[in-house]
Each structure stands twice: as structure tokens, then as C-alpha cells.
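Section 3.1: Structural characterization of target chains.
Under the original work plan, the team committed to producing a structural model for every single-chain target entering the pipeline before any wet-lab resources were allocated. The record below documents one such target. The sequence was received from the expression subgroup and is listed exactly as submitted; it comprises 626 residues.
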Amino acid sequence: MRKLVALPVLSADALSSVAYGPEALLAVLVLGGTAGLAYSVPVSLAIVFLMLAVGLSYRQTIRAYPHGGGSYIVATDNLGRIPGLVAAAGLMTDYILTVAVSVSSGMAAVTSALPGLSGDVVLIGVLVIAVLLAGNLRGVRQAGALFAAPTYAFIAAILALVAFGLYDAAGRGFEPVPHPPLHAVEGVGLLLVMRAFASGSTAMTGIEAISNAVPAFKPVPWRNARTTLSWMIGLLITLFAGTIAMVHLEGVVPRSGETVLSQLAHRSFGSGGMYVFTQAATALVLLLAANTAYNDFPRVLFLLARDNHAPRIFLRLGDRLAFSNGIIVLSVAAALVYVAFDGDTAALIPLYAVGVFLAFTLSQSGMVVHWWRRRDRHWRKSLGFNATGAVLSALVFITAGITKFTEGAWLAILTVGVFLLVTTRIHRHYARVAEALRLRPQKIEIPSRTIAPLAGGARGPAGNAEGTEGGEGTESTRDAEPEESPEEMRHLSVVALDSLHRASMRALAYAASLQQPVLALHVSPSDEDAERFRAAWLLWGDHLPLRIIVSPYRAIVTPLISYVESLHRQRPDLTITVIIPELVVRHWWHRVLHSRLAGRLRRALRPLPKIVVTTVPFHVPDGRST
């Protein structure tokens, strides 16, 4: 991406937080009455310093991880597996709440302009999440001017709002307008100020997005990413500080039924076209911010599944080349959270701060370890930046966890704990299965006789599926199946293999025992994986014909079906038996961790005549007996 496109697309989450971050800060301070509001400027200055420090910290992350350095990757590489999982938990909580908070804040912007819709915010918000789900399942991607426009419109609207407000304030010598009378419901003390600081710091959400997407930039990617991050931090500080300055000068306080930004827009623009433009731009950029989570959440799930910490169904791409399962999980989780909190942004903020700054803290702490180990050029300066970011992020995380514990932060902390428990149990199960499947020298047996390959075109070159094309069958898939006696049956067994292990060896042995021609079929996600499988196959002895299909989008069922269909068209006289190794686990909750390939193939191939799908079970020992 060009910087002019990357800036609005990747900054939407961070910049849109100006719509709710300052209001979250003021909503806490207003509890202390006039004395509480007096702290709005000092607390805002502290948040601006935090933005600058964390932004500089992520510049170092981009330099160290030019291929993308999300919190999970950085924490795992430098701090270990458990801190990496905790960072992933914080990230995933962040992404779920990004959708919920962005939608709720967007609905607040809409109802500020159209109060008649205020009674339907929950229903409309759920419908918005459903639209995001449908769009992303169809492969909608953030790219080009279409997705850049809402962010640039929002930037222009806030800058215009601040400019008009400052011009108006200059006419009265920058004398602040008195705010409405306020009655304190809490004493002003350190606890109130720290709560306000933690709430206002949610204006920093999304700062990590650019460090995750470094490879998406045009060359030189890391340099362009750092430049874009600097622009984003500068804009974020400008919009945040400008909003707080206008609140202070105009005497605006949070109130039910209308957002702070809407009040400021009314004062600067009245109720005309610019007011409508400001509210529309705010709602659109928040919708775009919600959509950014649909890129990042499935990616984190993919990384977790790749490392055996999440079910492997999250490795699979859908028909539209999107991580469909991760998109569905995100939508369901965000919708449940949104409904549970009645679409109230103020109620969601305490949960938001915990996840965001937990991920920030572990990412920056990992970078401190990274620079200490590397000690390359300028390492002391980089370590200093990242250490500052880590300390400040930890301060916000601890503050949010303590001061907002009873307001909902406990739920975010509990979610992180449950996530850690579940992912470690999943990893333990996969490790036990891997040990049970591991080939041992005495288990690698050469067939007692040579298995004759299928004659004709199916003997095509290994490494692709082209050998299945060339001989067109004369029978259609609707032809009858005339064989009624064993002597009339002519067989081919196709053994689908994901890798060479004890389960696949058992399936090959079963196929060989039928004393019919056997063809081994493997689907690889890349040429490199295909070569690794071929090397393992040659090590085994290359006793059977092998076909390898490269499927770069990790699709398995569709290439298998296409290959079997082409075999059927080529040799309609054969009865093809597709043999699949099947892992049998003891507990029902383990079944979701393993592929249900046999059932999917059976349903897909059922319309074709003379196709049989069978499984060869391999029972995984229970962990208590191993």
C-alpha cells in the first residue's frame, strides 16, 4: 500500500478513538464536579505523553520486526510461550471490544443527530455487526480510496471543528465558557484521577495496527511503515488535544443522549450541513475501525492454531479466501458483548482498557529483552524507548485493573485467565496426539509385495494434479452402477494423507491389504511443504504411486474432490475408494480440535456414482494412560 492509503486504512482504529476517548475521560472526572473537571487538562497532557512514548516504542518494533511484529509474536519470541499467550488474550479481547465499542460509539453519533433511534440502538448495532460479518465472509478487504475516505473525512471534520472553535474563542480572548452547574458525587482524589487517566487512555487503541501490517507497505516497507506511524501519532495527538481544548474552552460536559463531539459540532457549526457531515464522518470511521478487527482477529487465531494453541479449523481459508471461522467467532463474541452491555460505550470502556494495555505492556517488554539480547547499533536508545513504553503501559494496565475492577475490568481479567487455561490445554492435547502419531523406526514397514499402480493417465507426474486430465470419460455421473457380483468390480484405492505418521501408515496398510491398486494423495499448502512431504515419502521407500496437489490457500476438501472427480471422469469403469486416516479421541470436547474431513468428503462425493469414502480409525491413547 502507498502511505496515503495505508495511513487512513491502518489508522482508522486509533484515530476514531478520539470519538470516545476524551468523553470517557470526562465522564469520570465529572463525578468530582467542578473540582474534578479542573484535572481534565493535566490528565490529557499525561495521555498525550503516553501516546508519544508508545508511538516511539512501536517505531522500534517496526525496525526489529520488518515482517510484522504483533504483540503475540514479539512476546512469544522474547518472553516465552505463556507471556505470548497472555498477549494474545489481550489482543483478542481488544479486537472483540474494538467491534463492540466502535459500533456502540457509532450508534451514539447517529442517535445524537437522530434521537428518535435511541430506543433501537441494540437492535441496530447487532444488525451492523451482522453486515460486517456478511461483508467479511464475502472477502471484503480494506483497500483503496473507498476505505480511506471515511478516515480522511473524520480528520477533516475534527480539524474544522477545532479551527472554528479556536476562531470563536479568539474573539473572546480565549476565555472559557462556564460549564453547567455540577454536583460532585465523589471526592476528588488520586483514585478518581487515575480512573480518568485509564479511561482516557483508550484513545490509544489501534496504535499497534501499523506494526502488524509492515509487509503490506510498498518498498522499503519498514521505512514507509515508520513514517506512516509517525504521521498517525501526530494526527492522534492533534485530534485528541484539540478536542480536549475545545471541551475546556466551550464548557462542554458529558450528558445523556448526546456525545461530546456532537455538542462541540453543534456549537461550532449549528445544525446545518457541517454538523451532519461531522456526525456522518464519525459514524463511518467508527464502522471502518470495527472492520479493522476482522483483519487482525482471524490472523491472531491463525497464528495460535499454527502453534497448536487453538483448533486447527482456524488455519482454513473459506471459499472467498478469508479466515471464515475466525470471522464468525469474532462476530458472535462482539455481538454477545454488545448486547450484554446494552450498546453502552461507557460500560464497555473498563473492559477495553485492560486488554489493550496488557498487550502493549507485554509487546514492549518483549522488545526490551530483544534489544538487550541483540545489542546492535543504537540498541541502548531503542531499549530506552521500549522500556519507557512498557512501564507506562503497565501503569495504565494496573490502574485500569484496580480502579475499574468492579465496573467490568474483572471480566476482562477473568477472560484472559480462561483463555490461558484453554489454550494450554489445547496445546497439551496436540502434543499428546503428536507423540502418539510419531513414527518409530520399527513402525516403518515396507509392504510385503509391490502394489500395482493404475494404468493410464492417473500415473501422471508427481507434484501436481495435471496427470488426472487428458482422458475424458464417456459416461456421465448419472450412469447406472451395473456391477452386482464381486468379479465385476474393478477397484482403485485413493489414500488421502496429510503427513506421514502412524495413522497414515495404518491407512496405507489397510489399502494395501485389499490387494487392489493404490494411489496416495497429498494436498500441500505450498511448494516447500510439498517438497518436505516428498522427501519423507522417499525416505519411507516410495513404494506406492504418489500425487501431490499444491493448494496455496490451505483448502483441502475442494482439491481432493476435484482430483477424485477427474479420476472418475477418466476411468468411469473403476470403483474408487477414498480412504482417510481418522483420529479417534476419547472425549467429545477433543473432537472439535481435529478435522472432520471424512464427513465433508462423503457429503461432497455422494452425488457421484462408484465413489466410496471410508475411514481407518486410529485411537489416540488417553493422557492418563500414557
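Residues 446-480 have pLDDT under 50 and may be disordered.
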